[in-house]
Amino acid sequence: MAVPGPRYAPNGQTKTFDLRVEDKVWEVGPSALYNAWTFNGTIPGPTLEVTAGDRVVIRLTNNSNHRASVHTHLAEFEQVQDGVDGPSIAEPGETVTYEWLAAYAGVVPYHDHADEGEGVARGLLGAMVVHAPDEAPANEHVVVLSDLATEYFAQLPGVADPVTGMIPEGGTYRGPHQYMHIMNGHAYEESIPPFTGRVGDLSRWRVVSIGIEAHTFHIHGHRWLEPDGSVTDNIQLAPGTYRTFEFQEDRVGDWLVHCHFPNHAGGGMMARYQVTGP
Ligand SMILES: [Cu+2]
């Protein structure tokens, strides 16, 4: 297990973010439409970038007709800021303000905890990157691994609409797990925006897993150090866990990046990492 780095004391800086809970139909891929709950209209919500030691203020406005909240990991905060009960739940129409101390560098998920099961399954999730004040400049990649639930899809390729009996046009039927396992809000290589890099980069990856399944994160043709000093090219991430790692980029290619559970890769967790020459 990764050991947290040093604790950073408050640095006197405040970073403020406005998050809005908005329900919308989210296009996971061609003809794959999801009845989503979102932060600011996207799955995942915006990446919150802060520096270790920052006070982080989140103003959450709930524009939906269901309760919602924001909860995060590894940051320090009082229980009334936990997003679980009492005043840290935003009822429909309410705005709630959260205050965290980003005491540890790395990446963590943030997500709804008012109704964690449904909120996370609907898409109320995102990543917070906490930069160490002294970290080396790098080409950073943020990866959010999550899972969707079949019952919340408005439409899936090859699946008849229960009301009209019609098969939607466009898209390709990809089996019983299709579009259920997603990377940065989308499924499959043609829909997940590719990660890009150049030989010579310090390539830093910030990966969070926030859903109902465990995942692995595997990058073809590359390798990096584990916290225990061993070398790997595939890490395991249970729900609610996270990892930052980096390597010196040295391989040109259009590399596959995927979860190694076959039903998750087949279900959409497959993307590309496009590395060009120096
Ligand atoms: Cu997986």
CATH class membership of the largest domain? Mainly Beta
Order of helices and strands: EEEEEEEHEEEEEEEEEEEEHE
How many beta-strand segments?
20
Find the CATH superfamily of the largest domain.
Cupredoxins -  blue copper proteins
Question: Would you tell me which CATH topology of the largest domain applies?
Answer: Immunoglobulin-like
Which ligands does the model contain, each kind named once? copper (II) ion
Overall 3D form = flat
- The low-confidence parts are none
Strand order of the largest sheet: 6-4-1-2-10
Total helical elements: 2
Secondary-structure arrangement, i.e. CATH architecture of the largest domain: Sandwich
- Major sheet size, sense and barrel closure: 5 strands, mixed
Keywords:
278 residues; mainly beta; 2 domains; five-stranded mixed sheet; 2 helices; 20 strands; binds copper (II) ion
Task: Please explain how this structure is put together.
It is a single chain. By secondary structure, the chain is mainly β. The chain has two domains: 14-135, Sandwich (Immunoglobulin-like), CATH 2.60.40; 146-276, Immunoglobulin-like (Sandwich). It is 4% helix and 43% strand. The protein has helices at residues 116-122, 262-266; strands spanning 14-29, 32-39, 48-51, 55-62, 71-72, 95-101, 106-111, 125-131, 139-147, 153-155, 181-183, 195-198, 202-209, 215-219, 224-225, 231-232, 234-237, 241-248, 253-258, 270-276. The strands form five sheets. The chain has a five-stranded mixed sheet, covered by helices on one side. It has a five-stranded mixed sheet with strand order 12-20-19-14-17. The chain starts with 13 loop residues before the first strand and ends with a strand. The model has no long low-confidence stretch (mean pLDDT 95). Residues 181, 213, 215, 259, 261, 264, 269 line the site of copper (II) ion.
